[in-house]
Amino acid sequence: MAEKKPQYPKLEAHVKSPDGTWHSLTMYRDKEGQTKGTLFVENKAQGVSEKYPVEYVEKTSEKTHEKYLSAKADRENGKALYATIQVHEKDGERWLSAHFAEKAQGKVLENIEGAGGRLKSNQALLDAADKDRTAQYVREKFKVEPAQLAQEKGKDKGRGIER
């Protein structure tokens, strides 16, 4: 039996579009303080399985003045895949969600619609949350508690789709 790879602390999100394509991302802080992760595109029925390591860029929303993260990957099909991680707040609760968009050369940016997108902490992040650099970054920059990102909230259960 193969040994299980160690799980590193990270946040992850998955969005399933109506055609069955999964757009997923991970996010973590490395030892040098860089915010990195991976973008994934997968549709088994269509034979699509793509993985792109990325470095997130921190930006500030002109509309809300909240910080957010943005990343871009050039896909195998020639389109650019964009991902953002944004903070949301409602009734005193704050959470993070992932949004995806694609742009073909010379075309308009198209949002990728689908179910899911709420970021969740993996078990390794929850286990080390008090001292982990990813957890500290999320607390300081977004004022979101990583332990709360693992909990499902009543009416929001459908938003945090798991793979």
Q: What would you note in describing this structure?
A:
This protein is mainly β and 163 residues long. It has a single domain (11-150), classed as Lipocalin (Beta Barrel). Helices cover 9% and strands 44% of the residues. It has 2 helices and 11 strands. It has helices at 123-127, 133-142, and strands spanning 11-16, 22-29, 35-43, 48-55, 57-60, 67-74, 80-90, 93-103, 110-112, 115-116, 120-121. The strands form 2 sheets. Strands 1, 2, 3, 4, 10 and 11 form a 6-stranded antiparallel beta sheet that branches. A 5-stranded antiparallel beta sheet has the order 5-6-7-8-9, with no helix packed on it. A hairpin with a 6-residue loop joins β8 and β9. The longest helix is centred in the C-terminal third of the chain and has 10 residues, at 133-142.
Kindly list the characteristics that best describe this protein.
mainly beta; globular; 2 helices; 163 residues; 11 strands; Lipocalin
Short description:
With 163 residues, this protein is mainly beta.
Number of domains: 1
**Helix percentage:** under 10%
> What is the radius of gyration computed over CA atoms, rounded to a whole number of angstroms?
16 Å
Q: What would the CATH topology be?
A: Lipocalin
Shape: globular
Can you count the helices? Answer: 2
Average pLDDT over all residues? 88
Class by SSE composition: mainly beta
| Main sheet specs | 6 strands, antiparallel
- Strand proportion, as a percent range, falls in 35-45%
**What is the distance, rounded to the nearest whole angstrom, between the alpha carbons of the first and last residues?**
23 Å
What is the top-level CATH class?
Answer: Mainly Beta
Order of helices and strands: EEEEEEEEEEEHH
Low-confidence stretches: 153-161
- Going by CATH, the architecture would be Beta Barrel
* Number of distinct beta strands: 11
